[in-house]
Amino acid sequence: MFTILKEHEEEVTKLELSKEGKFLGYRRPDGKVGVRNHVLILPTITCATQTAQRITELVHGTVTFIHQHGCAQVGVDYEQTFRTYVGLGKNPNVYGVVVLGLGCETHQARSVAAEIAKSGKPVVTISIQDHGGTLTTIAKGAQAAAKLVQDASAQPREICDFSELIIGTECGGSDACSGLSANPAVGAVSDMIVERGGTSILAETTELIGAEHLLAKRAANDRVAKRVYEVIEAMENRSIFMGVDIRTGNPSPGNIAGGLSSLEEKSLGAANKAGNSELKELIDYAEEPTEKGLVWMDTPGHDIEQLTGMVAGGAQVVLFTSGRGTPTGSPIAPVIKISTNTGMFERMSDNMDLNAGTIIEGKETVEEVGKRIFEEISLVSSGKLTKAEILKQHDFGIWRIGPTF
Questions:
Q1: For residues 114-140, b (16+ Cβ closer than 10 Å) or e, as one string?
Q2: Which terminal CB of the chain, N or C, has fewer other CB atoms within 10 Å?
Q3: Which among 48, 64, 42 is positioned nearest to 137, based on CA atoms?
Q4: What tens digit of pLDDT does each residue of 286-302 get?
Q5: Is-contact 233 292, C-beta < 8 A?
Q6: What pLDDT is attached to residue 248?
Q7: CA separation for the pair 332, 258 (Å, rounded)
């Protein structure tokens, strides 16, 4: 028998849970826990993205994304995109999925759907060519989505522990305060998550160049330490192949304007998001962690591409620090925006959720801001909307590692 809470009683419960390191989540058939209850309209090919968009406009409770992938891809590039599609569908924040294909593309909808279905969640497959065109596909997709949304709405939340969370961490455009305020505060939160049996993902391989020796020292074993240097070298080689040595430069005008002189300088600040925990493993882009604790995902520094990779890897919530300001969000996971300085926080209040600039001003310590972020994670995981969610900032991009043929 379920207990029905009045609105004010539920809010009190959420606040109490946030202090205890717990939250109200949705239990999935595979045992994992979601903090949102989306029905995902997943277009496996760019040709189907507009049709998917029309379905989400018709059916409340659905989300989708626009992209340019799904065909004329081969080898490891094909495999990585396929893994990303499947990971997004399997993310615990998704109740059910309508996998939407054209019919003749490389990434077949039925193949993606079959992998997602292994999670036990409901999956429907629809092909534009098989259903006679766009209009009939929209009708068929909307009918399937409406049924999934109604079923999802009947699922209650239950009290869950932080040990069931995977938190993604991200550093957007930086300033001189990033490595002193928001990033160390996120590092403190990362340690809190790890201490409670959860998982924290460190990403942005590009923005760890120059700090790799510090992370290798914290590796759980020699294999992980060796992998640290391998992914750094591979990322640098990609840049050199394009005629640029990014280690000694800084390709982002925003970072330069923010006061950073080199990529290494940004990396030393960005690495603070990892806190002080042992580095358990280093996984590929959009791969699900196999270890609890601190995990490094090999992603580019591009905000949207690495955000998509972490969510495809199972992250239910993302902490995003910024010294320059950004509206970035995800269609599937709530993204908590953390400002590194008070001026930007006040200037971009429409987009930023929390201010870590109080550390620079001497009003709070890193640990105090970390505690605020920790409590915010619980509230957001229990249903509080982030600014990016409110503004429907559904950004999406996959890291392509091969040419289009």
A1: ebbbebebbbbbbbbeebeeeeebbeb
A2: N
A3: 48
A4: 999 999 999 999 999 99
A5: no
A6: 66
A7: 30
- Three-state SS string across the chain, please? CCCCCCHHHHHHHHHHHHHHCEEEEEECCCCCEECCCEEEEEECCHHHHHHHHHHHHHCCCEECCCCCCCCCCCHHHHHHHHHHHHHHHHCCCEEEEEEEECCCCCCCHHHHHHHHHCCCCCEEEEECCCCCCHHHHHHHHHHHHHHHHHHHHCCCCEEEEHHHCEEEEEECCCCCCCCCCHHHHHHHHHHHHHHCCCEEEECCHHHHCCCHHHHHCCECCHHHHHHHHHHHHHHHHHHHHCCCCCCCCCCCHHHHHCCCCCHHHHHHHHHHHHCCCCEEEEECCCCCCCCCEEEEECCCCCHHHHHHHHHHCCCCEEEEEECCCCCCCCCCCCEEEEECCHHHHHHCCCCCCEECHHHHCCCCCHHHHHHHHHHHHHHHHCCCCCHHHHCCCCCCCCCCCCCCC
122 HSE (CA, 13 A, CB side):
18
Give 67-112 pLDDT, tens digit per residue.
Answer: 999 999 999 999 999 999 999 999 999 999 999 999 999 999 999 9
Tokens encoding 124: 């429907």
From the list 107, 98, 99, 101, the residue with the least C-alpha distance to 129 is 101
The model's pTM is 0.93
pLDDT digits (tens, 9 = 90+) for 219-254: 999 999 999 999 999 999 998 888 888 776 655 666
The number of residues making up the chain comes to 405
Q: Determine if residue 352 is left, alpha or beta; phi over 0 gives left, psi from -120 to 50 gives alpha, anything else beta.
A: beta
More confident call, 267 vs 166: 166
Mean pLDDT rounded to a whole number for the chain = 92
Q: Look at residue 125 and tell me whether its pLDDT is greater than 50.
A: yes
* 199-202 and 293-297 strand pairing: parallel
pLDDT band at residue 11 using 50, 70 and 90 as cut-offs: low
Tokens of 119: 């999670």
Q: Quick one: 9 exposed, middle or buried, by C-beta within 10 A (0-12, 13-18, 19+)?
A: exposed
pLDDT recorded at residue 242 = 85
Structure tokens at 70: 């799904």
Q: Measuring CA to CA, which residue among 338, 315, 317, 334 is closest to residue 326? A: 338
User: What integer pLDDT is reported at residue 14 of this predicted model?
Assistant: 76
